[in-house]
Request: fold
Amino acid sequence: MKSNGNNPENQNEESGTLLPMEPVKRKVRLNPGGIVTLALIVAIIAVSAFIVKDIIKKKNAEPTFVITDADGTNQSVQVTPTPVPQLRPTAEEGYLPVFFSANTAEKEVAVTISGRLNQSQMDKLTQTAAETGARLTFFPTGKALESSPAMWQEVYLMGHEIESGGYDDTRYLAMDSAQQRGEAIDKAIRALKDCIHPDYELHFLRTNDMYDMDYLELHRLLNQRGVYGIASQSVNLSKQTTPDETQPGVIINLEIGTYTVDELCSFIKWLSEQGYSAVTMNELFDYGPNYASTPETE
Reply:
């Protein structure tokens, strides 16, 4: 008899009908090493995602800017994401603070003006300041105040701050004695008081030499006269200045003579376009005014 080609074990014994073949059951063997490797991969992905997220968060909260120091070198500065109570710089024992920048995240900067100004130049600067809402800090010499008192009184009445660049261009270190240095500081303070008001107080002195700020005797002489500290700067105006070179809280010095007044006015407008507010040194470092009232003018 011919075979029907079916396995007798798949036939129903009573009816002889064919039944479906049961699938072969295979045992799955788990590799312990593979499980560990998979777990490690998952863990690495999770940790990496957390790190990347944290980096992005910090980058957005604490941007880093490159600014140019007074000596022309670059440094990377990280902005504090929120203002802190200590806006002002600290100083070593016996020294007054040297003001380069304020610790703030607000888009505020101090624009300081150094050098000799005539009436026409001053009119252009103050007009630009009025258009942009800028409040400038000027560092005239005592001789400049004595030669044009009416001009400087008007500048003060406009809401700008007037400090001192010394009595003249003589370096303090070039003077022969502490007495001469003290007399020079007194002459600068007297010129400021005679011009603005007898009760006007000098808060910041800008020296004629970067090495003066490290001179301990000068700090002591200024401290004896109630001066808050020495004004320096974080950024010097450059024709290549970019937003990355300006950050919240910096002091930007604009030097008359190095650049034309038109160039300085353009820079002040540029700051405003970048969303920066130009405030006085007193405002930036949270000091009160040099004199509570307006000066008496004839």
About this structure: Helices lie at 32-61, 119-132, 142-147, 149-157, 178-195, 216-224, 261-273, 281-284. The CA atoms of residues 53 and 59 lie 10 Å apart. The two ends are 140 Å apart (CA to CA). The chain has eight helices and eleven strands.
